[in-house]
Amino acid sequence: MSGVVNVFVVSPDTRSERRIDPHITVEKLKDKLEPITGIPAGNQVITLLDSEGAPSATANLNDNTKQLGFYGLRDWQVLKVEDSNPSASFTGQLTDVSHVEKFELSEAEYAKRTDSVLAYKQRHKVGRFAPHEETETKQAHVPDGMVVGARCEVESSEPGLSKRGSIRFIGETKFSKGVWVGIEYDEPMGKNDGFVQGEKYFTCRPSYGVFVRPDKVSVGNFPVEELDVEDEEM
Predict the structure, then answer these.
(1) Which residue, of 83, 108, 128, is where some domain finishes?
(2) The last residue of a domain, from among 83, 114, 133
(3) 30 lies in a domain?
(4) Helices (H), the chain
(5) Phi first, then psi: what are they for 59, rounded to 5°?
(6) Strand partners, 184
(7) The pTM is what?
(8) How far apart are CA 57 and CA 48, in angstroms?
(9) Do the domain assignments include residue 202?
(10) pLDDT per residue over 13-72, tens digit each?
């Protein structure tokens, strides 16, 4: 053989691609592999395989005086290096977790931690800690007296604005989950005519209808407000 060959060197803790002169002896090869694999030359057991998945070795490099060419070393074969005394050289311990003490934490101890995922969810009200269930329950509650036909007033964010009307619908809808109250306003302050996303829930004039959650509606004696108009010109 002449030149160098490219081979893979594998050991319990390493895997690398190397260029090797086939004219060197097995003893010399072991000296070169010691700093690569971490296995002392005297403890190395080297087998030659055609590939890493090969079912059996092509040769056992057990004669330190032989040149590598004697074993027919060629490109892209695998030199598998094992340790005959791993307890002395500690090889394989980087990948062997059988001797590592397992860290375990009880549910109670985990719940006390402030740096856990659970603590984060609790602080930011995420997942099962979100307040949506309470909100949905509040929105779904229909007070006594809230019936179709009742007069009502809808909560407004604008000071002094009264949004009065009559209840025309109470129940679940297709456009959103939960219970909704359909109202026909006394004035055109609404958003629809009782017809939403292809479904008719009640009938009223355009821009007089609206859907709101029950907790935004007050039922009672809310007569239609009369608009006072004074003549400014004679």
Answers:
(1) 83
(2) 83
(3) yes
(4) 26-37, 86-89, 107-112, 117-124, 132-140
(5) -160, 155
(6) 166, 209
(7) 0.41
(8) 6
(9) yes
(10) 899 999 999 999 999 999 999 999 999 999 999 999 999 889 999 999 999 999 999 999
